[in-house]
């Protein structure tokens, strides 16, 4: 995300994936007395004081969603609720989701919560609640539990009986003592956050049993001891933050097994050297080993971390240039003036070199001015509109003439496709390097909308760098010719690959799972790791490109937009029909949730091998609250059943995520 509790793969594919706009249920209950009891329980919470006279219509109250008359969802996050959670909440035994986060609720959690045995999601974060009742262990279907931001003080061992739990957030709960050793029993756990508490003692070695973990956050505690040697077993780990603790010892060599890791943060008291094998963590985007006691040389293997955006090795005892000196703290002072005599030959050499370099630069500048004046004279229009030809991030030189020659002035025979605007050409440079060129035609350039999209794409792709976002090598802005220079994607678009049977079969389940992960990582980077969040607004299979290894890259940023916290972020509807979030039709406000909905559609398309048009209509239908689907009924029939339990578990998890992304209410 891996050892799932399925007894066999055939048994797994008999399980139903329940798709619902609210939650999961298996039966109808028409007992009017039961419905009246539910309505009474809701009324006694005091959360719907303005609706007490409309008991018979409680399914229409704000924040409530029903199935066959039974309440299955309560979503009142951030609704200004206060007081306590009344015991009557336990009467809602069909409840699947309970979200009361970001309110001002106080007191103890009622033991009657244990009656909610069908509950899958419980979010009570950021209130003033305390104590976890013993009866919580009865919630055997609980998948996600978030109690962050409450003064709980004590981590109840009953939590470890929740074997289906995949998300556990207990951040900033004033928890103390040691992390219970039986935490390793939560083998389905994917996302574990125990940060900003007062835990002491070691990181339990049993954490290494949580092989499905994708994120582990233990920062800002008082943990000591060493990092577990078996941490390398967590091969699905994407984010690991152990900073601001009191950990000692060396970084275990098994860290090199965490090849999916994108964020590794360690500000502790670690000693020893930085493992040479750390260069194998090629997905790393952020590496912070600052404020430790690391010594030795900085390994040259760090140069292999080509996706690295942030590196901090400060405040350690690392060695390198032994002659480095200066007045900065930690550096030895430089030699004083008596050594001037010995340094005289060096000074003469440096002066000579400086004179030579200065003279060369001046000659080049004069020649360039003469060439530029000649160009402007021969092309008067360029002085009016200006022109820019810029190349960067490329392992060679590209001349404008090379591009024109390689495409025979953009002859149609080199055209390999069209996008939202412009045409895409394949070009082979004199060096043998293959590139893709997206050219904006003259008629398009005269239309402000196309010109804006073109320049928008340059703006975003020059500012962001991510492994799964297509790389822009350069661009040309000229009154007669405007084009972008991209890395070439040998296997074209995901849409094309899924449309052709032979290509689709080559995209086996492992590759499809990796495609979903890659797109998810890229969207997470755009939404959370940029200075201002970037919303793509056109995530579709046409805009996911595949390289020779069938790795996925997000492309076409012509409609992308920055989210400004000081703006209303209102917009016109853009994107590809069938992928656009429904809420845009009535709100016209762009948020990250717009991309999340599109991601859900895309993920189903990858699983099904085709656009899930009819399935989307069924999910969003107001007349059909619940639909049951056998998982093997919606998977791409061109692929055989996955034979490994791990892969089957991945597909199940991805399907659950996809359906969650398609819930009609963005806040869900």
From TrEMBL:
Protein name: non-specific serine/threonine protein kinase
Key word Transferase present: yes
Membrane-topology annotation of the record: Single-pass type I membrane protein
Subcellular location: Membrane
Transmembrane regions listed in the UniProt entry: 344-368
Any one of the GO BP annotations: defense response
UniProt keyword annotations, A-Z: ATP-binding, Glycoprotein, Kinase, Leucine-rich repeat, Membrane, Nucleotide-binding, Phosphoprotein, Receptor, Repeat, Serine/threonine-protein kinase, Signal, Transferase, Transmembrane, Transmembrane helix
EC number(s) stated in the UniProt entry for this protein: 2.7.11.1
A cellular component annotation (GO) from this entry: membrane
Cleaved signal peptide residues: 1-27
Ligand binding (ATP): 438
Main location: membrane
Domain named Protein kinase: residues: 410-668
Pfam families hit by this protein: LRR_1, LRR_14, Pkinase
InterPro entries: Kinase-like_dom_sf, Leu-rich_rpt, Leu-rich_rpt_typical-subtyp, LRR_dom_sf, LRR_R13L4/SHOC2-like, Prot_kinase_dom, Protein_kinase_ATP_BS, Ser_Thr_Kinases_DiverseReg
Catalytically driven reaction(s): L-seryl-[protein] + ATP = O-phospho-L-seryl-[protein] + ADP + H(+); L-threonyl-[protein] + ATP = O-phospho-L-threonyl-[protein] + ADP + H(+)
Gene Ontology MF terms in the entry: ATP binding; protein serine/threonine kinase activity
């Amino acid at each position: 995300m891996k050892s799932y509790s399925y007894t066999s793969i055939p048994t797994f594919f008999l399980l139903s994936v329940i798709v619902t706009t609210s939650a999961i249920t298996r039966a109808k209950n028409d007992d009017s007395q039961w419905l009246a009891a539910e309505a009474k329980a809701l009324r006694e919470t005091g959360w719907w004081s303005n609706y007490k006279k409309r008991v018979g219509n409680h399914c229409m109250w704000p924040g409530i969603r029903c199935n066959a008359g039974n309440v299955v969802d309560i979503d009142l996050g951030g609704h200004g609720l206060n007081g306590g959670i009344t015991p009557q909440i336990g009467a809602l035994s069909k409840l699947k989701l309970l979200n009361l986060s970001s309110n001002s609720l106080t007191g103890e959690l009622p033991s009657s919560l244990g009656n909610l045995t069908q509950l899958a999601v419980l979010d009570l974060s950021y209130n003033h609640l305390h104590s976890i009742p013993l009866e919580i262990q009865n919630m055997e279907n609980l998948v996600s539990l978030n109690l962050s931001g409450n003064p709980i003080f004590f981590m109840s061992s009953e939590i470890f009986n929740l074997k289906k739990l995949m998300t556990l957030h207990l951040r900033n709960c004033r928890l103390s003592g040691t992390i219970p050793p039986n935490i390793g029993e939560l083998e389905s756990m994917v996302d574990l956050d125990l940060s900003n508490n007062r835990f002491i003692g070691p990181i339990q070695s049993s954490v290494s049993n949580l092989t499905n973990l994708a994120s582990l956050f233990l920062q800002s505690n008082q943990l000591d001891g060493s990092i577990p040697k078996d941490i390398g077993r967590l091969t699905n780990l994407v984010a690991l933050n152990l900073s601001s603790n009191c950990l000692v010892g060396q970084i275990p060599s098994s860290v090199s097994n965490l090849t999916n890791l994108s964020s590794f943060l360690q500000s502790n008291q670690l000693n020893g050297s930085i493992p040479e094998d750390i260069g194998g963590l090629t997905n790393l985007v952020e590496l912070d080993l600052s404020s430790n006691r690391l010594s030795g040389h900085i390994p040259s293997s760090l140069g292999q971390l080509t996706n690295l955006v942030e590196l901090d090795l400060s405040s350690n005892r690392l060695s390198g240039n032994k002659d480095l000196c200066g007045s900065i703290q930690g550096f030895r002072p430089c030699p004083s003036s008596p050594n001037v005599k010995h340094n005289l030959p060096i000074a003469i050499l440096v002066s000579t070199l400086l004179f030579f370099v200065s003279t060369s630069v001046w000659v080049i500048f004069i020649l360039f001015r003469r060439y530029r004046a000649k160009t402007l004279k021969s092309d008067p229009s360029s002085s009016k509109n200006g022109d820019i030809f810029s190349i960067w991030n490329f392992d060679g030189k590209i001349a404008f003439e090379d591009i024109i020659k390689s495409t025979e002035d953009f002859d149609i025979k080199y055209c390999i496709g069209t996008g939202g605007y412009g045409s895409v050409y394949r070009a082979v440079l004199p060096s043998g390097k293959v590139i893709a060129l997206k050219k904006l035609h003259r008629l398009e350039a005269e239309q402000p909308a196309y010109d804006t999209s073109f320049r928008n794409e340059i703006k975003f792709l020059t500012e962001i760098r991510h492994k799964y976002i297509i790389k822009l090598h350069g661009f040309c802005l000229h009154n007669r010719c405007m084009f972008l220079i991209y890395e070439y994607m040998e296997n074209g678009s995901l849409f094309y690959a899924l449309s052709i049977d032979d290509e689709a079969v080559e995209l086996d389940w492992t590759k499809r799972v990796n495609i979903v992960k890659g797109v998810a990582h890229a969207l997470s980077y755009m939404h959370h790791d940029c200075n201002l969040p970037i919303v793509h607004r056109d995530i579709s299979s046409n805009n996911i490109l595949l390289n020779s290894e069938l790795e996925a890259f997000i492309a076409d940023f012509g409609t992308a937009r920055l989210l400004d916290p000081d703006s209303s972020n209102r917009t016109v509807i853009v994107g590809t029909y069938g992928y656009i979030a429904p809420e845009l039709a009535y709100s016209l406000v762009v948020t990250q949730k717009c991309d999340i909905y599109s991601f859900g559609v895309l993920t189903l398309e990858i699983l099904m091998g085709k656009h899930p048009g009819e399935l989307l209509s069924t999910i969003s239908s107001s007349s059909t609250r619940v639909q049951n689907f056998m998982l093997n009924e919606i998977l791409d029939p061109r692929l055989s059943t996955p034979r490994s339990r791990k892969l089957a578990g991945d597909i199940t998890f991805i399907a659950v995520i996809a359906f969650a992304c398609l819930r009609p209410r963005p806040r869900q």
